[in-house]
Amino acid sequence: MKRIVVLASGRGSNFLAVASAIAEGKIAGRCVGLIVDRNGTLAAVRAERQRIPVITINYQEFRSRDEYEAELSAVLRSLNPDLIVLAGYMRILGSSIIREYAGRIINIHPSLLPSFAGLNAHRQAIEYGVRLSGCTVHFVDEGTDTGPIILQRWCDVSEDDDESTLSDRILTLEHEALPKAVSLFCEGRLTIDGRRVFISDEAE
Ligand code: GRF
Questions:
Q1: Whose CA is nearest to atom 8 of ligand 1?
Q2: pLDDT for 54-69, tens place per residue?
Q3: Predicted local distance difference test score (pLDDT) of residue 202
Q4: What is the pLDDT of residues 92-141, one digit of tens each?
Q5: Closest approach atom of ligand 1 to CA 14
Q6: Distance 14 CA to ligand 1 centre (A)
Q7: Atom 14, ligand 1: which residue's CA is nearest?
Q8: What number does the ligand 1 atom closest to the CA of 87 have?
Q9: Distance between CA atoms of 177 and 183, rounded to whole angstroms?
Q10: Which helix (H) or strand (E) is 80 found in, with range?
Q11: pLDDT for position 21
Q12: What is the pTM of this model?
């Protein structure tokens, strides 16, 4: 069983999708902790309901980003994760953590990367006028939303869409894609080769 740690900042619907897939036996792993970077998140409430330990590392209480990252690093080490899942974690992870867990951190982003990286991906897609958008699950490297792509799911964008309708449609895709990618990782079926990720047919 792989040890999974999820990082989130808000609502936690992607966290819940992963936790539910674990509870249903669809993922060969267990969630050993949810780390949140602020107080009062719905993500934390959802984890507590699932009896998953919540660790709050409130960014506001630290004097500097380095001190926050040092605490995050210490907490991660204590949890000893095989996989770190960024599920709506609204910060850029520091490079020392990214290097320490290279190939073991995945992120969900609500666009078809490499289009519309960074913040406000739905707004970027609507303003650009694309007819197609979706979500991307990718390994995390030191860039913003630039790491090797594991899975993508896509949907139409209509002229009537606004940020809210598009994000609802993409969120449904996220809730399928993220648990699927976590499952593939936990079964040892993902191999990174440069920018490309290969998915093997059989469990290791
Ligand atoms: C999702 O759209 C995710 O792609 C983005 O932040 C949002 C988090 O939603 N990175 P939730 O907290 O998982 O509900």
A1: 88
A2: 999 999 999 999 999 9
A3: 72
A4: 999 999 999 999 999 999 999 999 999 999 999 999 999 999 999 999 99
A5: 13
A6: 6
A7: 13
A8: 13
A9: 10
A10: none
A11: 98
A12: 0.97
Cβ-contact 12, 44 below 8 angstroms: yes
What is the pLDDT at residue 169? 98
| 59, 38 contact by CB (below 8 A) | yes
- Could you tell me the residue ranges of all domains in the chain? 2-199
Q: Does the CB atom of residue 174 touch ligand 1 within 6 A?
A: yes
Residues tagged active-site? 109
Strands 190-193 and 196-199: antiparallel
Rounded to an integer, the average pLDDT of 34-43 is 97
Q: What gap in Å lies between CA 185 and CA 191, rounded to an integer? A: 9
Residue 203 has pLDDT above 90, yes or no: no
Tell me how far CA of residue 56 lies from CA of 47, 97, 200, in angstroms. Answer: 12, 18, 36
Beta sheet of 54-56, edge-to-edge order: 54-56, 29-36, 2-8, 83-86, 105-109, 132-139, 149-156
Atom of ligand 1 nearest to the CA of 110: 4
Residue given tokens 């966290």 in the structure block = 15
Class of domain 2-199: alpha beta
Confidence (pLDDT) at 204: 56
Return the ∠ at Cα 58 (arms to 52 and 63), rounded to 5°.
150
Report the largest interatomic distance among the alpha carbons of the chain, rounded to a whole angstrom: 48
Q: Is 173 in the pocket of ligand 1 (CB under 6 A)?
A: no
Q: Does the beta carbon of 107 lie inside 6 Å of ligand 1?
A: no
The average confidence (pLDDT) of the chain is 97
CA nearest ligand 1 atom 6, residue: 88
